[in-house]
Amino acid sequence: MKNSACPLSHGDGITTRQSDFSTGSCPNCLLSVCIRRYGEIDLSASGSDAEIVKKTLIEAYREIHFNNLSNYSCGGIMKIDVAILTALPLELQAFLRHGGPWRRLESDRFPGRIYYHFRTQFGVSIIAACSLSIGQLSAALAARDLIDEWKPTVLILIGIAAGINKEVRLGDIVVSDQIVDYELGKVSPGGVTPRWSVYRSDPVLLSKLTDYRDASWIADIAVPRPDGQTGLIPRILRGVVLSGNKVIADKKTAGAIGSIWPHAHAIEMEGAGIAAAVHGSTMTTSFIMVKAICDYANKLKNDNWQPYAAEVAAAFTSSFILTALSRADVKLKEPDKMLETANTSVDLRAIRLAISSAFDQVELKMIMSDLEIDWDNIAGTTKNEKVIELIWHLKRHKRLEDLVHIIKKERKGLLESYEP
After folding, report:
1. What is the 3-state secondary structure of 167-195?
2. CA-based nearest residue to 298, from 253, 337, 348
3. Cβ atoms of 251 and 298 closer than 8 Å
4. CB atoms near residue 168 (< 10 Å)
């Protein structure tokens, strides 16, 4: 802690001891101050102006005593509730125009990482950051560093995307219910066969975002529509978002990818990388994507709609966080019991035997269709080989609970009969 005058003692106090600011009282202050875990500060004050005094002193205390990023991040002093991540500076700047005042923080642990912090009126602590470049890898690294440093309960990717569905209009918002990585594939003489990786968005966040009905955020959109229309309100759509590493400006290519996923609304370049980082983390971070449409991934693709789309996604997400989220909504979640049961307690052998004995090949194909998994993308030639590969595929992607749910629904009591 570098030497700083303490405003709580009218600028007269100077200290160099880090322990002075961990717990107990500031040795140079005339008031009792106690720092709780995650940056919550208790301060005793009395009199008719007590609340104003407390607010002023707490903000001054944070400004002086927590004057660099290491004091926030090291030792778990601050716990972040919501992290906002973008791929482009344009998207980050759009978000920073809402809420605030934002505090700029430079990471000591990850050189080059810049974060912006703000706490809402409901006590929700927000960190916003931008990936160093576009694409899945850079986004995954940004998410990994952010999660490692700040341990957010919720992570939301916001920004712009291309529309690939006739229902989607320029400026509309797409909230992801699933994120599909289309990059992986098998190259053979017959061409490239995609091997989809599917990541599901957090169901609670999905429900809250799609049910958000406060339309006041529309008035906060500070960038005009490029087409000059003033009465067209962006719609909130939920659906599949396709994610890869290519900037696509070809209708045929976008259509070929989207044809496999009829409920896909958008295509972009970072979601799958971040989803993979979140799923691979030891933290229980909830993830979802909110992106506005800026083009249609065809030959007419240009940057004209990008500022407006970035502003729409930012205004909507910011309004949602500021008005609809409380600390109770973003409290640290207990591990999902259903997921824990499906991945650890249920005998994999029981699942394999149950499917192999009670479902024929046609039914197995139907199960895979319900799971949105292509039959040809699962290795194996016989049914038993397919069953084994399907189980391990779902286990790797933390979706085994989906298969357990289908088995229990279609054949009640079957799974239990095979368990040891």
Report:
1. CCCCCCEEEEEEEEECCCEEEECCEEEEC
2. 253
3. yes
4. 21
Between β-strands 125-130 and 82-86, what pairing exists: parallel, antiparallel or unpaired? Answer: parallel
For the whole prediction, is pTM greater than 0.85? Answer: no
The structure tokens listed for 84 are: 């906002």
What is the model's pLDDT at position 339?
A: 33
d(CA 83, CA 127): 5
Of 417, 397, 315, nearest in space to 357 by CA: 417
Burial zone of 171 (CB within 10 Å; 0-12 exposed, 13-18 middle, 19+ buried): buried
Are 136 and 243 spatial neighbours (Cβ–Cβ below 8 Å)? Answer: yes
User: How would you label 294-305 residue by residue, b for 16+ Cβ within 10 Å and e otherwise?
Assistant: bbbbbeebeeeb
> What pLDDT is attached to residue 117?
94
**Region of poorest pLDDT, from 33-42, 48-57, 114-123:** 33-42
On the CB side of 401, how many CA atoms lie within 13 Å of its CA?
A: 12
pLDDT score of 75: 32
Q: Which of 189, 158, 151, 166 is nearest to 333 (CA)?
A: 151
CATH class, domain 77-324, is: alpha beta
**Mean pLDDT of the region 61-85:** 57
SS3 76: helix
Dist CA 162 CA 295 (whole Å): 5
Cα–Cα dist 141/146, whole Å:
8
Rounded percentage of the chain residues whose pLDDT exceeds 70? 75
User: What count of residues does the chain have?
Assistant: 420
- What average pLDDT does the structure give for the chain? 78
